[in-house]
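queue> pop job 88
queue> type: inverse folding (structure -> sequence)
queue> payload:
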């Protein structure tokens, strides 16, 4: 505000309020002077059509008010008559409008944008779309006015001034209402026509405050100055799309675990774990880094980061998968070694696959409102639909405060109907996860047929706040229903209230996989590139048990798999659930070992075990790897065994890249075993071992490492 306006504001605020009679007298005097000047102008511009001496006589006669009124009424019916632009009521209206505008400007609280009262914020673009005219509203009686013609302009905006002006009209709406009524003496009532709607919306990137919706009974109408004139009514500004919500220290939930520690081989020679083909952790790590934050330590599961990437492993010959074991020097400590245990699942069966029944269980609770949740979910599902066959079926179950079927089983070829059902979903209410799961499993059971594959695909942010919200209760709920052959996979969306612990629990006990989708590129990877692995299981309850030779290996530690650890006796117990492998899946696990006599050992040998020897042909082996799995549909497991041969090989690019990702995960979480090996070394190793990198995933990992290194140095 300029200095002149500030001085004017102070002067107006300090001046005494004029008395009502004085104010009325001044206004009347001003109007009279205006009428006199207007009459003089009219007389000078248009002479009466008289001849001879009568002209001066007529000019000199006093004017009769009754004659003027009669003349005005008769002239108003003449088609050639044009009403003067300046009439007394119009002047009053213009004066009132100017006074109102100046008053609002001077009284508007400092720090707020006055121009925003009747439009978008300064500098912001607006998008306008005019919809067809609505039906005419019911005529309303014109309010009485002693002036004969009244112009009322009401501006509505949140603020103390607007509250006084607008009364109980809805606030935070860019609406201006103009009402004109004819003279009471004319006895006319203005016919109020419903104007065509004109929607005004701000760009979501520029607007951040939601608007208040107007109901038909309370909305203000824009009415023209002439009875037959239709003008636009400005509709409420639509709510902007919420921005992506990033987590705080306690807003998200992750599985609790302690990083794997070193085990002395002589004391604990056996390590047992369940395989894991989930990839959610890597995507969550990427999401955090791309938002300029280091991920929560509990969100870093190194095995999921390693298994996010594909490796050039040979295909199995006859079995469902082929185990491979090799040993190479540890990149962060040459005195230690890494043992890689890798599994390659067989490729998908060639030819037509069996029909698939897919139940999309979609979380539509209020927490799914942000653009990286339900909106991204809808776009992701369009990719999935393009990969289904005509004889596949799709159904949609939604859950918020309660569960319901949004789409009955529908042929996958009817993509338009399926997409319409998806687009109609809107977030609201709580998260009745248990009700949604029950409904989805019931529907999947009805769809499941002989020689068909049936899956429930849960898409959620994991925020289960109604029903069975306890992870252990959810585990039992899912375990009781997986025996029917219906698997459950989980897709996570969004940040801010991500409950990764619940997602992991559901996927592990539902014989499915867990993935996190933060972009359409990730949707392509999960729902298109890896679809065959999700729909065609080749091995159930896959367990790995490694026994190290205490005569050759002094100590070891398993890098990752903390949430997949099993007891030693669980390996032979077929009743214990474990991870599943689909067609084409790969699993990689890394052990770091310290050979006997290594200067890099972190523990000293036990006094009474120093002379322990291993007899027989197994003396030279570093250890032994055993795997158990079930063929889908069978209840008894099968066993595959392979030794860990001595000798250190030169790591190929596949092994080196896996080691680089293992170092990446440790640098983000627990790096106590890395010594002086840091971000520069991890980046250099990953860069040198990217290999072919067909889709650029490894190059992306290098960029994320650089970003994480920069964030770690802050």
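queue> result:
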């Amino acid at each position: 505000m300029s200095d002149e306006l500030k001085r004017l504001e102070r002067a107006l605020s300090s001046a005494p309020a004029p008395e009502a009679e004085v104010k009325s007298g001044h206004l009347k005097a001003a109007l009279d002077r205006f009428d006199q000047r207007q009459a003089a102008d009219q007389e000078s511009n248009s002479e009466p059509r008289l001849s001879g001496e009568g002209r001066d006589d007529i000019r000199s006669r006093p004017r009769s008010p009754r004659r003027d009124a009669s003349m005005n009424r008769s002239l108003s019916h003449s088609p050639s008559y044009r009403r003067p632009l300046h009439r007394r009521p119009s002047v009053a209206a213009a004066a009132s409008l100017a006074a109102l505008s100046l008053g609002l400007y001077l009284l508007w609280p400092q720090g707020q944008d006055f121009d925003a009262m009747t439009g978008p914020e300064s500098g912001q673009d607006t998008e306008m779309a005019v919809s067809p005219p609505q039906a005419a509203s019911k005529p309303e009686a014109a309010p009485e006015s002693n002036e004969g013609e009244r112009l009322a302009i009401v501006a509505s905006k949140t603020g103390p001034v607007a509250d006084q002006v607008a009364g109980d009209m809805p606030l935070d709406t860019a609406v201006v209402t103009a009402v004109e009524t004819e003279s009471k003496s004319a006895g006319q009532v203005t016919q109020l026509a419903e104007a065509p709607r004109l929607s005004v919306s701000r760009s979501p990137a520029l607007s951040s405050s939601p608007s208040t919706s107007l109901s038909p009974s309370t909305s203000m109408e824009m009415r023209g100055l002439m009875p037959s004139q239709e003008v636009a009514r400005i509709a409420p500004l639509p709510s902007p799309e919420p921005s992506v919500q990033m987590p705080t220290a306690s807003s998200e939930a992750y599985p609790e675990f302690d990083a794997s520690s070193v085990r002395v081989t002589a004391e604990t020679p056996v390590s047992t774990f369940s395989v894991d083909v989930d990839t959610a952790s890597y995507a969550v790590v990427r999401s955090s880094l791309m938002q300029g934050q280091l991920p929560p330590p509990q969100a870093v599961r190194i095995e999921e980061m390693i298994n996010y990437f594909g490796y050039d492993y040979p295909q199995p010959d006859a079995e469902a998968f082929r185990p491979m074991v090799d040993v190479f020097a540890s990149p962060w400590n040459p005195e230690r070694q890494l043992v890689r245990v890798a599994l390659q699942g067989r490729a998908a069966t060639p030819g037509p696959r069996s029909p698939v029944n897919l139940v999309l269980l979609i979380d539509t609770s209020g927490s799914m409102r942000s653009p990286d949740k339900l909106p991204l979910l809808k776009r992701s599902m369009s990719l999935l639909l393009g990969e289904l066959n005509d004889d596949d079926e799709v159904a949609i179950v939604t859950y918020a405060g309660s569960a319901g079927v949004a789409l009955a089983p529908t042929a996958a070829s009817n993509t338009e109907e399926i997409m319409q059902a998806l687009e109609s979903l809107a977030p609201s209410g709580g998260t009745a996860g248990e009700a949604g799961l029950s409904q989805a499993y019931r529907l999947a059971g009805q769809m499941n047929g002989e020689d068909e594959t049936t899956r429930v695909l849960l898409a959620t942010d994991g925020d289960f706040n109604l029903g069975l919200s306890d992870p252990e209760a959810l585990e039992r709920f899912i375990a009781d229903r997986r025996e029917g052959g219906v698997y459950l996979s989980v897709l996570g969306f969004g940040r801010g209230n991500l409950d990764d612990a619940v997602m992991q629990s559901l996927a592990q006990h539902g014989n499915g996989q867990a993935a996190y989708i933060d972009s359409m590129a990730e949707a392509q990877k999960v729902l298109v590139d890896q679809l065959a692995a999700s729909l065609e299981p080749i091995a159930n309850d896959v367990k790995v048990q490694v026994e190290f030779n205490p005569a050759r290996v002094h100590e070891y530690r398993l890098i990752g798999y903390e949430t997949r650890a099993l007891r030693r006796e669980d390996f032979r117990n077929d009743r214990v659930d474990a991870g599943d492998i689909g067609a084409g899946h790969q699993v990689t696990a890394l052990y770091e070992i310290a050979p006997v006599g290594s200067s890099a050992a972190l523990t000293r040998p036990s006094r009474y075990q120093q002379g322990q020897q291993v007899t027989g042909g197994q003396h030279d082996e570093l250890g032994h790897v055993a795997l158990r799995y079930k063929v889908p549909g069978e209840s008894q497991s099968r066993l595959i065994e392979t030794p860990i041969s001595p000798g250190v090989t030169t790591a190929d690019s596949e092994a080196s890249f896996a080691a680089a990702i293992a170092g990446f995960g440790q640098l983000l979480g627990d790096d106590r075993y890395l010594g002086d090996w840091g971000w520069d070394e991890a980046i250099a190793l990953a860069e040198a071992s990217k290999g072919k990198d067909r889709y650029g995933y490894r190059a992306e990992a290098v960029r994320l490492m650089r970003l994480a290194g920069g964030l770690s140095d802050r």
